[in-house]
Amino acid sequence: MILGIDPGTTGMGYAFLVAAPERALLIECGIVDVRASSSAAERLLAISKALDELIRRHRPFALAVERLYFNKNARTAMRVSEARGVALLCAARARLEIAEYTPQEVKISVTGHGRGDKKAVQRMLPLLVALDAPITQDNVADAVAIALTHARRARFADAVAAAR
Known about the structure:
By secondary structure, this protein is an alpha/beta fold.
């Protein structure tokens, strides 16, 4: 099982995905919701506790997380990098395999090109992942897409290894 994370300090998207030959199976997804009114340290602690509990409950073997890219808003980039660091810490404590993907890599994996927008990713997910209902929250859809990207990359790496 793969845990996909779309880092954020006010709404971190997460998704647990099982790879399958046809369509991946989504086990659980959602938002690690933290109160916007709490301090930055309290938000990071809440993220840590929630991720530790999710990892303990689902026991994934890998964490796939979005690689931070330069953002025009330095304050937002710093907050996202802090949340991302907490996710990496939680994964390291649980001894998960860690994979990082840029937004462009995720878009290429899910939509076939790197210029797809969030809506294009959301439109493709039901074709690639067995879903009970459409995913409309951007952070959650991104987390599913990140986990799916890792599943696809891992499957390709396995195929290459088997061919050698």
